[in-house]
TrEMBL record:
Residues 3-67 form the SnoaL-like domain. Pfam families: SnoaL_2. Residues 1-23 are annotated as: Disordered. It comes from Nonomuraea coxensis DSM 45129. This is SnoaL-like domain-containing protein. SUPFAM superfamilies: NTF2-like (SSF54427).
Length: 95
């Protein structure tokens, strides 16, 4: 996914999910590459859910995102506290 496609993808999602919180579990950068594992906790239409994200990307020389690849998994939850608990209980959180 290039930068323009990422921006086009993100705009409508941000409009429909005004309430969110991001929990970064791991992130590493090496040269122009970045990898991160995080959980995005969102409220959508009165329901709370957690989205686990594995992100891999590359930066352009000017520092803008040049390339992005994401793997996601949605975890349903009843409320924000449950969303955070669900994200931590997936077996991937560090002890």
């Amino acid at each position: 996914m290039d930068r323009d496609k990422l921006i086009a993808h993100t705009r409508p999602i941000r409009k429909t999910r005004p309430s969110n919180r991001t929990e970064v579990h791991e992130a590493i950068a090496d040269g122009d590459r970045i990898a991160a594992r995080y959980t995005l906790n969102v409220q959508r239409r009165g329901k709370y859910l957690a989205i686990e994200v594995g992100f891999f990307g590359r930066f352009a020389a000017d520092g803008r995102m040049r390339e992005a690849h994401m793997l996601t998994r949605t975890l349903p939850a009843a409320d924000p506290d449950q969303a955070a608990t669900a994200a931590r209980n997936t077996g991937r959180a560090s002890a």
